Amino acid sequence: MRNGTPMFVRRIISDCTICVVLGVSVGVMFCLVALLIFLFRGHQPFDSNHVSVLRTVATYLLAGALGGLVVGLTLPLARWMPGAALVAFLAAFVVWFFVGWSISPQEPVLAIAHTSAVLGAAFGLPIGVGFWYQDRRYKRTGKW
Q1: In angstroms, rounded to a whole number, what is the distance separating the alpha carbons of residues 95 and 129?
Q2: Cβ–Cβ contacts within 10 Å for residue 124, how many?
Q3: What is the mean pLDDT of the chain?
Q4: Neighbouring residues of 80: CB distance < 8 A, sequence distance ≥ 6
Q5: What does the pLDDT average to over 24-51?
């Protein structure tokens, strides 16, 4: 223990900080794409999805931050393949939930959660297993 804080708590704080920064960075990249679309196409693409540019940008930043927080909190589970799949599923679920809620705020939360679970499984599970496999391969061979 250093400064009275247990090592595992410092590790979780460090993981969460790094993952939130990375999540917000991904959100910023999506925001740049949205702003480019707005610059070249105007409000039409956003109006057709019943969202504003501001809501789109806020959703990307919030989803990135919360997805990163979920990954940071659950990262120790990623040592095992099922845990890595679960971590990626949870992060994808959070991101899809906020995107769905942004597009259809009047939709029942359970319907958004159901759709988010399906999309989280479709995208998150293979991504988690793929990252676990790549990390395992790197630890054994030193090559990606």
Answers
A1: 18
A2: 25
A3: 93
A4: 132
A5: 94
